Every structure is written in structure tokens, then in C-alpha cells.
Amino acid sequence: MTELPPPTLDDATRNRAELALCGLMAYRELTAFERLSSDARFSPTIIDRVALARLAVHEFGHYERVVEVITARGAEPADSMEPFVASIDALHDRTRPGDWYESLMKAHVIDSVSGDFYVAISRGLDPDIRRLVQEVQALDEQNKWLHERLQEALQEDPRLASRLALWGRRLLGEALTQARRIAESGLFNDALITPDGEEPLSVLFSELVENHSRRMAALGLTA
């Protein structure tokens, strides 16, 4: 996306959007920790189990970092997270993986789409929040491991390809549905940056889909 100047927001609007984004990130990181910790138990090897457990620890560290920011701004973390609890919990209820490989694909897709969403929202906010998003979404190592482990699984059993491609499409649909509901809540509308004349949500979702398609293509899967 072409770099555009951030919108001019009054202090109250900006603070509300920034705390909402922090609350969203905090609860998603908390649930990611819980999910990865649980999925690690079903890993096919000890090495895989250790790798997923390590990723879970990173997610919890991100949760604690965001909570520090919320608290430093004089807000209650639980209050900031509450608006997103039902939506995120419902997403996980609707996308229960059938096996360990589906759980890897879920982590890869949901984490990546969520990260793209945070980055898009943060473009219209203050630099300190953009830096926090970059810090929390510093997932190069995590995404690299998930990508390589999925590639390895697909090479070992090519029959996984059609199932994981279908699962990836379902995950994308669920992630986009959740992102749309959150975006349409009105919490972030003023923060979205788009070229003049373009509808903010259309631009946002085009970006999310394009990034997802590129990631799936890198796995040799059809998005």
C-alpha cells in the first residue's frame, strides 16, 4: 500500500482507537497463547511440541507487553479486551482444527491476517502505537517455522494439499468476517487511511486477501 499521511484525529478519538486496538491485540495474543499451548500436546514429535510451546511463550510475552501499554495509559486491561471477547471466542469455536496440521494452518492464517489488520489500522494512529504493533507482530521467526513445517508436511503427504487449501479458504473467510465486524463497529473508522475516493473497508479487505493469497501461493496452495 502506498504510504499516505495519517488522518487528523482529535485526541479523544485517537485515544479511543488506540486503546481499542490494544485491547483487540491483547485478547487475541492471550487466546493465541492458549490455543498453541493446547495444540502442542498433539504434536507428532517432541521437536514439534517444543517448537509450538516456544511460540506460545512468545504470544504470552506479546500479551504482557500490550497490557503494559494499556495500563500505562490509565485503562483497565480487562475493560479494553472485553468488547472483543465474544467475537474472538466465536471465531475459535467455529474453526476447531481436525488435526495437528489443521492447527498449524490455523495459526498461520489467523495470526497473519490479524497482523495485517493491526498494521492497517495502526497506520492512522500515533507512531508509538505503530511501533507497538510492529513489536507484537514481529512474527518472522514464527511464520517461518509454521511455513516450513507446513511445507514439510505437504511434501511428506501430498494428499494434505487439497484438505489444507480448503481449510485455509475457510479460515480466511472466518477471519475476514470477524475483521469486518470489528471494523464496522465504528472503533477504527476514523483511523483507516485510503486514497481519496476509495472506500476504506474495500481497500482494507483487498489488502488482506492479497496478502493471504501470496502466503498460500508460497505453500503451493490455492487461496
TrEMBL record:
Recorded superkingdom: Bacteria
Segments forming a coiled coil: 129-156
Gene3D superfamilies: 1.20.1260.10
Keyword Secreted: no
Keywords for this protein: Coiled coil
UniProt entry tagged with the keyword Methyltransferase: no
InterPro entries: Ferritin-like, Ferritin-like_SF, Ferritin_actino
Pfam families documented for this protein: MiaE_2
Domain Ferritin-like: 16-185
Protein name per the record: Ferritin-like domain-containing protein
Record organism: Arthrobacter rhombi
Lineage per the UniProt record: Bacteria, Bacillati, Actinomycetota, Actinomycetes, Micrococcales
